[in-house]
Design a protein that fits this description.
Elements lengths: L6 E5 L25 H11 L5 E5 L3 H8 L5 E5 L5 H7 L8 E5 L2 E3 L3 H11 L3 E7 L8 E4 L5 E5 L4 H13 L9 E9 L2 H8 L6 H11 L4 E5 L6 E3 L3 H12 L11 E4 L2 E3 L4 E2 L2 E2 L3 E3 L4 E2 L4 E2 L3 E3 L4 E2 L4 E3 L1 E3 L4 E2 L4 E3 L2 E2 L4 E2 L4 E3 L2 E2 L4 E2 L3 E2 L2 E2 L13
Parallel strand pairs: 1-2, 1-4, 2-3, 6-10, 13-16, 14-17, 15-18, 16-19, 17-20, 18-21, 19-22, 20-23, 21-24, 22-25, 23-26, 24-27, 25-28, 26-29, 27-30, 28-31
Antiparallel strand pairs: 4-9, 5-11, 6-9, 7-8, 12-13
Length: 382
């Protein structure tokens, strides 16, 4: 495999829309069937040939720095960045030559090496991965011409804005070929961009500032449209995070797989788990998990490390983070329980989010319970 240059993973965002999950951990560290999400991204980069990965952290960034301490080929830095481009500017001294940038909260099996080769072959200052989606409103919409040159960015546009822009292009018979192409948050740059960032400290964000600046300054930016069957999801909201986990269990993300041993289709169980219950795939069972007799887990359940499910309980369509305990005859359905939670005997938790460190004494329905203690799921108890 050809060794590729530096890749930068941006992991500094606050993740406000993913609250209350992000009250205890930064978004790139959300548990994702046995590992933090960012581990899958870094592993994909390294398997694609990027031997050096720089991770920039800010919000709760000490957790990210600690997580990657001692990991070969990964350098995680806590920096006071104001936005995405500012983060790259602050670590520019660590980058030599052309480089790749990826957001640290994107679930995707995009072939990084193929995209980077496209960037090198075309030789422009910047290339962007574009993905066609059904609804572009939550994302940055991108317009390209028939030669895949990007001609306009519209950051998280309103539906009326999309209509007016499209109408304007069609009225002048622009060679734009349309679709719902969005900025996938993965970029490749020539080294020249670093000097531009240093010389223009007002360029803070790639989508809002850097790319429009480059176009206005006469630079060409290439759009690499991801293959139609490429998986891509930005886990900016809890419901998207949950769906991405179900997609992982359903083997809809080629190249990504839950960490447990595959027992049968859709069933992943860690070696040291103690299971004396009925499992209905798809299910992930993490390290140190104990599920007692008479319990039923699944379909669609993720039990992260050291979860205990006592006798007669039922867990379905739910995610339970580390070090949590479900007492006897409890029922958890369509819910997300953060780490270090405890559900009392016979209690039902339905369509709810339970914050870390909470003890649930009575039934909860359609509620979000804020964290009772701000402890990371990766903190070792005791």
């Amino acid at each position: 495999m050809v060794e590729l240059p530096t890749a930068v993973v941006l992991a500094g965002g606050v993740g406000t829309r993913l609250a209350p999950l992000t009250r205890v951990i930064p978004k790139p560290l959300v548990p994702f069937a046995g590992s933090p999400l960012i581990d899958y991204i870094v592993e994909s980069l390294k398997s694609s040939g990027f031997s050096e990965v720089v991770v920039t952290a800010r919000y709760l960034g000490e957790q990210i720095v600690k997580h990657f301490r001692g990991v070969n080929g990964v350098r995680a830095l806590l920096i006071d960045s104001k936005d995405t481009a500012d983060a790259v500017r602050l670590v520019s001294g660590l980058i030599k030559g052309d480089f790749l940038v990826s957001m640290g909260d994107v679930v995707s099996n995009i072939p990084y090496n193929s995209f980077y080769k496209y960037h090198l072959d075309h030789g422009e200052i910047a290339s962007i991965v574009l993905k066609e989606v059904d609804n572009p409103l939550p994302y940055g919409l991108v317009y390209v011409d028939s030669n895949s040159n990007i001609i306009l960015f519209s950051e998280k546009p309103a539906s009326l804005e999309i209509y007016l822009v499209s109408l304007a292009f069609h009225s002048v018979k622009s060679p734009v070929f349309f679709s719902n192409l969005v900025n996938a948050g993965i970029y490749a740059f020539k080294e020249e961009l670093l000097s531009i960032l240093v010389d223009n400290p007002g360029l803070m964000d790639f989508g809002r500032h850097v790319f429009p600046y480059l176009l206005e300054s006469g630079y060409s930016i290439k759009g690499w449209i991801a293959p139609h069957n490429t998986y891509w999801n930005d886990i900016g909201r809890v419901e998207v995070y949950v769906q991405a986990l179900w997609d992982l269990l359903d083997d809809k993300i080629p190249g990504w797989r839950p960490r447990g041993n595959p027992v049968t289709k859709g069933l992943y169980v860690s070696e040291d788990a103690e299971i004396n219950a009925t499992l209905y795939p798809p299910v992930y069972i993490g390290s140190g998990v104990i599920v007692s007799e008479g319990s039923i887990v699944g379909p669609y359940a993720v039990l992260e490390g050291n979860v205990v499910v006592e006798k007669g309980s039922r867990v379905s369509y739910s995610i339970i983070w580390h070090n949590s305990r479900i007492r006897r005859n409890a029922y958890i359905h369509s819910s997300l329980l953060m780490n270090n939670t405890e559900v009392n005997e016979g209690v039902k938790v339905l369509s709810s989010i339970i914050g870390s460190g909470c003890f649930i004494e009575s039934d909860v329905l359609n509620k979000t319970v804020q964290p009772c203690t701000l402890v990371s799921p990766y903190e070792v108890e005791g």
